[in-house]
Design brief:
Elements lengths: L1 H11 L2 E2 L1 H8 L4 H15 L3 E2 L1 H6 L1 H9 L3 H13 L25 E5 L10 H20 L19 E14 L5 E7 L2 E7 L4 H9 L5 E8 L4 E7 L16 E5 L11 H11 L4 H5 E7 L21 H13 L6 E5 L29 E3 L4 E7 L2 E7 L5 H7 L1 H6 L6 H10 L31 E4 L6 E5 L2 E5 L8 H6 L7 E6 L5 E5 L16
Parallel strand pairs: 1-2, 6-8, 9-10, 10-11, 11-12, 14-15, 15-17
Antiparallel strand pairs: 3-13, 4-5, 4-7, 5-6, 7-8, 9-18, 13-14, 16-17, 18-19
Amino acid sequence: MDEEILKIIKEKGLLLEKEIYDLINSFHDKEAARNFLEQLERVSGQKMITKGVLNKNVAYVKEFVSNLPGGDKSIVEKVFVNLGISLEVRREKIVEVKENSPRPKQDFQVFYSETAPDKKLEVKDFVGHFRARFHQLQRILMARPELQKNLVSINKISSDRTSLSIIGIVTEKRITKNKNLIITFEDLTGEIKALVKFDREEIFEKAEELQLDDIVGVKASGNRDILFVQDVFFPDAFVPEKTKFEEDFSIAFLSDFHTGSGKHLEKSVGKFLDWINSEDETAKKIKYIFFVGDSVDGVGIFPGQENELTLKSMEEQYELFASYLKKIPKRITMFLCPGQHDATWVAEPQPIISKKYAPQLYELENLVLLTNPAMVKLLEKEKEFKVLMYHGASVHVLINEIKELRELKAAKCPAKAVKHLLKRRHLAPSHGVSASIVYTPNGEFDPLVISEVPDVLTTGEMHRADIENYNGVLIIANSCWQAQTSFEEKVGNVPDPCKVPVLNLKTRELKIFDFRDESEVDENGGWKGE
């Protein structure tokens, strides 16, 4: 294949280190070799392809190799091992069902987020994290047909005016005295300023929505001095066809129990538990329940919290929560991820809830403990129904920072804010904007990137039930089981407690049930208990 490889190299004007040439030459498939070189040049912005370039773009390399056919894959993997490049790919964790378990035959897979091991963080960890994020979202954007014409890296922009497309991360935004918007975009090869004119209303509105650290595609004209923006493209999420199962069953969504809080709604929880154990036709069809974080109120979460707790320790709080889960029928499989109030660190991705504080949860055979975020795939033959669970700490920041959401007062309709996570294909897009968003850097890949578009994205945090459809993705923002707290009253947040969305996977019918006990909480979430 030597001649074919040399022809490809000459066509593309590339220079290859000998070891890289040998690697490319090991491909059996000429087209695969061409694609690998073309995409590597594009994502790296380099014409000189060395081992160092491969190391800096290892996320792309891993993805490419994982999609190779068996023969090529094993040969190429061996060459990479010889080059000292690790291609270990993260795999889903399968939850095994024990013999004689009350859980039915397993027909789901869970995908845990990889939580970084404890170590001292350095600046290079954050650099690697953002590099990995850029690669992941760059590949998604490169698949958009609107950007495929004249797509260049920033260092390849010439001094002559031309039409082009770039993919970049937003590093700065400012309004000029003429009310125009200047945005600085950066990729792995350089940075450039781009101007959005105030009188181009549609484009200006898109550009104004951009947040720091957003990674987007831009169509523009201009030269290396400045670009004039013609359009902006987010990575975005699309589900072309809604998945329906043949089996007639439903899934339910709950979050934010806050057990231990003085405003915890124990009577209302009791009404839900009575219903789930009843002969009600909808209740009998529920096969899975998703619990999306903040199961307990926690201890020391905010100053003075101890004055608002009825249960003063995490152990007591989890004991009460576990007593609820024990009353849920064993035929139902439950999935539980943490939130900021749970017994785990706050930085995302969050590991599963600690056994030290919640040993009772580990005794429940029909409970699957997950990270935050986590993906659950429900399976039926060749079909997959994907549920992405994310508690939702970043939603507060979006509501504060995006003009459209501020004007909507989106704290009352949080699913509209969650749409922006899907649009950006990231669960916490802006780093360091608020203490609400804290995450542990990962130099290989960013686990908060929405790499696979789910059928359902379900969140908690905002204490209000809300539903939206976005490009085929069903967004379910969950209610809570806590009346309005003094803090919520201070900031003007009005909870909508005790609502349970139930989705039928055969019909795709969605119902929301209200289990509010009127003696405990009023219709505005106000506390009426003793």
